[in-house]
Amino acid sequence: MNTVQLVQEDVRRVGAELAKVQKILRETEFPKGNLIIKRFKGYKTGMPYVRIYSAANVAEAPGTIDAAKAADGANVDQLTKLADLAEAPEADDTGKAIKLRKADYTEGNLCASEQTKKARDRYIPRAQRDLARQLALKKYYTAKERDLREEYAALSAFARCFRTKGQRTEQLLRKYPEVYALIKDEVNDRNVRARRWSEEAYIGKKNYADELIHETVSRQKVRSKSEVLIANELYYAGIPYRYECQQIIGGVSFYPDFTILNPRTGKVLIWEHFGLATKREYMSDAVHKLAHYAENGLVHGRNFIMTYESERVPLNVSTVRLMIDTYLR
pTM value? Predict the structure, then answer.
């Protein structure tokens, strides 16, 4: 796929996800108010509050010390100390912090409510954990909906702009065939570079050459039937590769199963197949190899892909084709 097709695919994906989130927000009866988390000196974790802006809802909210006492069963002395919060500076707009006037209080998780000019903040006791959970979900989906709307707008704008302006290189070659005649060998660079790359000599693995007993459709010898499957599907897809080509990664010499040139992007990536996933010693070595790869910038899905199998679950052609369609098309 070209750039426009990739962006249009992302537009559809983000649009579908946005519609799903908007449906949740529209159809779920979330509680009124907003969840805020306040942090107090002497308490290791933040405490949940519901911030309600409607005067009617404030009147219904049990935000008094007596109600808090009934909810959490705290002692009167502690509640009296916590009542000093009413004289302390108000929380900031995000409700993240509030400064206490007294240094030390008895440990616990009860906090008094506070009244501001704009809203009423009510502490959510442990008995109302489901309320806190519902408010947290509401906060999460609201933030996610905003992120998706912005991403959808950005992708849509790019797709419209790109489609409107068109691709200058394509327009150039169509308008001036004389230019194309002069550089046609280079403008077909993807196929040309891919063919040249696949024909270049490279340093291969020399150890255990006697294990190269399985032949691919291109008459290349590999070590396993699963590698035959991968090599054949790459060949059918027209994707050039090098089998067990030496790669110096972090100063260490490796011979990955397949070093591949992505014909669409022109970038090189590695494909490793782990065929003995149930063998402890084999997988121990594989884990160390993967850790070394990761430490040196090889990231799965970006410049490195892998497949694996066990005796009970062998590699199949559907999996190989899915990997090719996902990462190499």
Answer: 0.46
